[in-house]
Amino acid sequence: MKIETGGIRGRNLVNRGPPPDDSSETLLPESRSDKVFGRQSSACGAIVIGILEWNDDDLWVSFPFRFFSSCPLRELYGVNVTDGSVERYKARLVAKGFTQEYGIDYEETFAPVARISSVRALLAVAAARKWNLFQMDVKNAFLNGDLSEEVYMQPPPGLSVESNKVCHLRRALYGLKQAPRAWFAKFSSTIFRLGYTASPYDSALFLRRTDKGTILLLLYVDDMIITDGLYITQAKYASDLLSQAGLTDSKTVDTPVELNAHLTPSGGKPLSNPSLYRRLVGSLVYLTVTRPDISYAVHQGTLFHGLFYSAQSPLVLRAFSDADWAGDPTDRRSTTGYCFLLGSSLISWRSKKQTFVARSSTEAEYRALADTTSELLWLRWLLKDLAVSTSSATPLYCDNQSAIHIAHNDVFHERTKHIEIDCHFIRYHLVHGALKLFSVSSKDQLADIFTKSLPKRRTRDLVDNLKLVSHPP
């Protein structure tokens, strides 16, 4: 089954400021929105009244503004457009959270979010075991969060309130810094009362085991219906990005980046306005959720590529680790690349520059092995929660014989002194049976695509081996 994840959702509502680059929703001029919504302030006032009905008593505090900080508001208006037709009109009152002060009207703001590797692992296991999956979208989720701090809100426009009073919020509003944390606390406490427990390996994964079976609940906002084999794509999202960048009519290329291309901070001409470039970079990071082939670089010749999770895939984990030694000409740092497959399903990967300069290719490969081992341990723990057996050692493939030798050799010398911690870390889990190292030829090294630019044929072969498929509409 084909699953389309994400159009451009940088903004869910259109505001009074400059129009966003995406076209998923239509900006309404103030004069026109007055006609559509009646009066803007009345529309938002009606929404606020609905929210304030939760707190009838002790709602309005009668102190002048100067005695405490009160959060100002912003009105957002939008139109959801589907296939060129208006689906619905939207209005929302949002707090200007950037005016909040730490220690006064907010403290902790961190809220757990499901790791995308958890999402892919769950989908791969569900496809292989033919589990029924259901999606639930909580509308206005953040409005359900209870506030533990004292937060005061200025009265919204159009709402008749005595001039010396402000609203004492009991529940969160969109825009408040602590709103995501308050929502997660509300959700988790509610679901705990229903018999669920949180996975110690992903705080957003909840489990409920009974005699009738196991329910897995992963808290992640997305719309999907899944049965049997599974194909996940972001074609619409990629198409919108091309429109933003003005590249819709450009010719496609065969590889993510030119072979042997090396970018430097001083190379090229500075952009007069880098805002679009920065937005595109952030959007492309999200695109790598289903596009591992662009993790090292980006191209637009494979719009409909996506991940395929087969219903016939065996649930056996294997890993590939690689490094490109001193590949950055600016600082000579190496690039780590790794990927994990559950049977034939690609569930996790990474392409990232190493923190330190490696003095040899062996050191670069060994540091990559350490990062891969860390991800390997976490995935084994997660898969155990997903009822996938991890009793046998996970095969980890590396194309550097020296790095494999160091992992099996318990004698340290000057050659390994500077990576001694990594040596202890890998060897410990090697001895205790969590992983088993295998040598692989460079030709069969699947993680090669995450470390450097490659020729056309090599890129195509790796894309095929990673089970990236293309399904045009």
Automatic annotation (TrEMBL):
Domain Reverse transcriptase Ty1/copia-type span(s) in chain numbering: 79-228
Cross-referenced CDD domains: RNase_HI_RT_Ty1
Region (Disordered): 1-29
InterPro entries for the chain: DNA/RNA_pol_sf, RVT_2
Domain of life of the source: Eukaryota
SUPFAM superfamilies: DNA/RNA polymerases
A UniProt-annotated Pfam family: RVT_2
PANTHER family: GAG-POL-RELATED RETROTRANSPOSON, OS10G0432200 PROTEIN
Identification of the protein by name: Reverse transcriptase Ty1/copia-type domain-containing protein
Annotated source species: Vitis vinifera (Grape)
